[in-house]
C-alpha cells in the first residue's frame, strides 16, 4: 500500500516537473527562436514628435541713428524685449514665433555709413561693418529728415540683412520712449514679415503635414509650384532641335551656366547641392500640333494645349542615371522651319512676351524662334547661334520660382533693393532657409511617426539594428533641429533637419523591412501543431488527473473530519 | 509625390525677379527688357480639371495679368538704374565653333553561304573630352547624357555590354564582325582611381539595368570574375592590372523590344532619320540571330596619340533567314529585310554608308546587285581581303530619281563554297545521373599548316563543383600541356570558378578540354522558379591571334570602315578573333519543394513520439502483477465455477 502511494506521488511529481519545464523553458525557447527580430525603437520620443511644437526665433536688432532719440530717451531705451506669437495650425501642430528685439544707438562708424548719399551705398558700408548671422536682422531707424530714401519711401530693404526705417513724421522729439517704441513696433513687424519668416510661408512649408483650408488658392498654388525640399537637385538644360536638317543650333551653355546660373547656385549652397547638366536632343517633337494663326502670320500654342506638350518630350529626356535627386528640366525648343514662328498664347489670346511657360515641380519650356536669323533664300542647313542672355533670363526666373525663392508682395512704402549679381539677397536666402527647415522637420517627423505606426501595426516586420540606428539618429537630428530653431541658429537648424530627413527616408525605404511580411502567425502555429499536440495532451491529462485527485482527497479529508 | 498630380486652379503669373544678369549692354541693341519676365503657366496638367472652375478663375487671372504689367514696369526702371552693370558676353562675334564630336553610321550586308543574310549596323560617336581627369563633364551634344553620367560617376575606363538572342553558328556563317555570347555580357575596366571596385561594379550594374531595361541587376559576386588575360582593354591605356576589370555574363537573359528601344534612344538621330529607320523591332526580332551592343572606350585621335577622345560604338548585328520565307527564290532587298527603304542619311552624321560584300562574286556570275553602284571598296576583315559595293547616303545621287534606296540581290546560282573559319569551338556536358558530369570543350584549328595559341576562359557557377585534378587537354590523341593556367576555385554562394588557360593548337586539329564536376544541392530558396528547366553555364570565351592569310592593316588612324576597325590590330601577320561557345544547360538535383514543411512535420512527430515514451516511463506507476495461471489451471477453474465449487 505504502509503495503504491509513493509510486503515485512520484508519478505526479514527474508530470508536474515536466509541465513546469515545458512551460518555463520550452515555450519561451520556442517563442524566442521563432519570433521576428525587432530592434528597440525610441517610441516615446517618436510619439513626442508626432505632436509637433515648433518655435522659431528671430533676432532683431533695432539701431537708432542720431536724431531719432533724444539723450533723455536714450537712457530709457530698454535693452531687450521678447515678443511671442502663437498659432495653432491643427491639433497636432502648433507654431510659436519669438522675436527677440535688441535696442541700441548707432555707433560712430554706423553714423558715417548712414550719412552716405544713397541707400544702396549705406547698405553696403553697413554690411562691411558687421557680419550679421544667418537668420538675424538689423533695422536702422533713421530720422525723418534723412536724404537716404526717396520721398515716398519709408522702408528700404537692402541686399543683406539690413533695413532702413524712416522715423515717422508725427514722432517729433519730446514724446516718451514708450510711445516711440509703440509707434515703431508695427512697422518693424512689417519689415520682419518681408525679410524673415511669415506665417503664410511657414504654413505653406507645413503643407505636407497639415491639410490647408481650401480658402486661399493663390498661396496653395505658390506652395505647390516649388519643388519639395530635397538635399540635392539636378538641373538639366535640354536644347530640342526637331529639325537638324534645316537648323544647326549652337548654344554656349557652358559659359551661360557659369555666368548666370552658377552665382545663384553658389549662394544657395547651404540649402541644397546642385548639379547641372545639359544635352541636345534632335528630332524631339512637341506633343501638340501648333495652329496657324493667319492674322499674325504665325503658329500659336494655346495655353490649354500646353498640358500635352511635355509628355512625348519627357520620354527622351532620360532620368538621371547618377543620382536619385529630383530633376529640374529646362527645355529650349527651336521650332522647325515649317512651323516658325511659334508663339504661346495665354487665355486672353495674347502673345506671351517671354514665349515660355513652366510646369510646377517639373521645369520650364521656352520656345525660341530662329526663323528671323535667315532669309527665305537661305541654304539649309543654317548655322544659328542662340542668344544665351535672353534664354537664361527666362530660365533663371523659372529656376527661382521652382526653388521657392518667392518675390513677396511688399506693402506700400517699401523699396526693395535690386538684387546683386548673385541674383539672390541674403534675406531672401534666409526666408528660404526658414521655410525649408520647417518643411524638412515636418516631413521627417511625419516619416518617422508613420514608420513607427506601421511597425507597431504589423507585428511580423523584422526591424534590423541598422534601421533602429537610422531611426534613432533621425530622432536625434530632429530634436536638435527643433532646438536650433528655438535658439534661432538657422544654419545649424537647416543642417540638422537635412540629416533628419536623410536618415528618416533611409529607414523608411529600407528593403529589409519587406522581409517576412507575408509569413503570418497562424501558419507558424499550424506548422508546429504536430509537435504541440502530442506533447500537450499527456501533460494536460495528467494535470487534470492531479487536480481531480487533489479534489477527491480534500473531499475525503472533509468527510473524515465530519 | 507626383509633380503634376495636383489639382488646383491654373493661374497665369509673371515672375519677375529683378535680376541683374539680364541687363543689356549699352551697345547691344538686340536685347530688350521684355525678355526678363517669364510668362508662366501653372500646372498645365491640371488645366482641364481647372476648367470646371472657370467661374472664379478669370478674375484671378486678370488680377495676375495686371500685376504682371506693373512688375514689368518696375523691371524696366530697375534695368535702367543698373546700366553700369557689366552685361556678360554680349559682343560675341561667334564664329561657328568646330564641334568636338563626330557621328558616323554604317551598315554592312553580307550574303552568307547558308543562304542567310547578315546585316551589321555600326554607329560611332567620337567625342574629344576628358572623363578621366577630375573635372566634371556635364554638357552633352551627340554623346548620350545617360552614358556620359555613368562614365563619370563610376570612373569607367572601358565599358562593353552586349545583348544577344540566338547563337552565332561559326561553321555556317563564318566569323561575325562583333562576337557576342547568347544572353547578356558585360565587361568593364575601371580607372585606377577607384578604391572600392566591387561596390562600384554593383552600383554600375544596377544603373545599367535601368538604362537598358535588362536584368543586369542579377549580376552579383556569384557570376562576376576578374579574368587575368582574356579581356585586355581595347582602347588606349596601359592599365592591365586585372583588379580593375570585372566580367559577367547572364546566359539566361532574353533580349527583346524593351532592350532595343533604350538602345535606339542613345543614338543622336533616334529612329527618325538615317540608317536607324530600318531598326523596326517587328522585323529585327523575326530573325535567326540578333545581337546589340554598346562599347565605350578611349581612343587616339591621331597617330602620335597626342589627343584622346571617347568612342561610343553602338552595334547591332542580325541574321535573317530569307531562304525559307522566300518561296524558294534566293533574293533579298532592304525592304524585304526591314520593311523600310532608305531616303536620307542622318543629318548629324559625318559619314553614312552601306557596304555590301561582293567578294564571292566579283564578276557578277553568282548574283546581281541592283541598283549598281560604281563605288567599290576593299578592306581587311578578319584576316581576309573583302570587296564591298558602297552606297554613300550623304550623296543625293545615291537615292536616284525615286528618292529612295532599296538595294536588291538576286542569286543566279547557288554554288560557291565557304572558306572554313580558322578557329571555332563547341562545348557540351557529358555524363549521366544527377551527381557528377563532365564538361567537354572542343577547339578546332582549321589552319592547314600553322599552329597558334589560344586563351580559353571558362566561368562555371559554384554549384557545379569542378574537380580540377581531372582537367585534361588533348590534341590529336596526345596530351597537350597548357603553357599557362590561372585557376580560381569557387566559394559557395560567393564566387564562381574561373579557369583560364593558354593552349597551343596544332595545325589542322581538334583540341579537347575536359573537366569533371559534381552537382551541388542548393538551398530551397536558391532554386529558380522553374528548376527543372536547368541551370545555365555561360559560354566559354576563346581569344586568339589567328595567323592571317593577307597582310593586315596596322595603321589605326587611316580612314577605314567601322566594321574593320573594332579590334585594334598590332601586327600585320595575325588578327584578333574572339569565339564564344554555346552556353550549357545543366540539370541539378531538384528537391520536392514541399520538403521543408514535411521535414518540420516529420521531426516534430519523431520528437513527440520520443517524448511520449519518456513521459510514460517517468509518470506511470509500476505494480508487480500476479503471474497469470496456466491454461490447465484456468480451464479447471472454469469447470469448478460451473460446478459451484470455489476455484483453486
UniProtKB/TrEMBL annotation, chain A:
Ranges that cross the membrane: 12-31, 525-547
Main localization category: endoplasmic reticulum
Biological process, per Gene Ontology: attachment of GPI anchor to protein; GPI anchor biosynthetic process
PANTHER family: GPI TRANSAMIDASE COMPONENT PIG-S
InterPro entries in the cross-refs: PtdIno-glycan_biosynth_class_S
Highest taxon listed in the record's lineage: Eukaryota
Any single Gene Ontology cellular-component annotation: GPI-anchor transamidase complex
Similarity comment: Belongs to the PIGS family.
Topology term for the membrane: Multi-pass membrane protein
Pfam families: PIG-S (PF10510)
Assigned keywords, A-Z: Endoplasmic reticulum, Glycoprotein, GPI-anchor biosynthesis, Membrane, Transmembrane, Transmembrane helix
Pathway(s) where this gene product acts: Glycolipid biosynthesis; glycosylphosphatidylinositol-anchor biosynthesis
Entry's localization field: Endoplasmic reticulum membrane
Keyword Ubl conjugation on entry: no
Protein name from the UniProt record: GPI transamidase component PIG-S
TrEMBL record, chain B:
Pfam family, one: Gpi16
Keyword terms, alphabetized: Signal
GO terms for biological process, alphabetical: attachment of GPI anchor to protein
Biased composition (Basic and acidic residues): 50-84
InterPro entries, per database record: PIG-T
GO cellular component: GPI-anchor transamidase complex
Region feature Disordered, mapped onto this chain: 43-101
Keyword Signal: yes
Signal peptide as annotated in the record: 1-26
Domain of life: Eukaryota
PANTHER family: GPI TRANSAMIDASE COMPONENT PIG-T (PTHR12959:SF11), GPI TRANSAMIDASE COMPONENT PIG-T-RELATED (PTHR12959)
Protein name, per record: GPI transamidase component PIG-T
Taxonomy of the source species: Eukaryota, Metazoa, Chordata, Craniata, Vertebrata
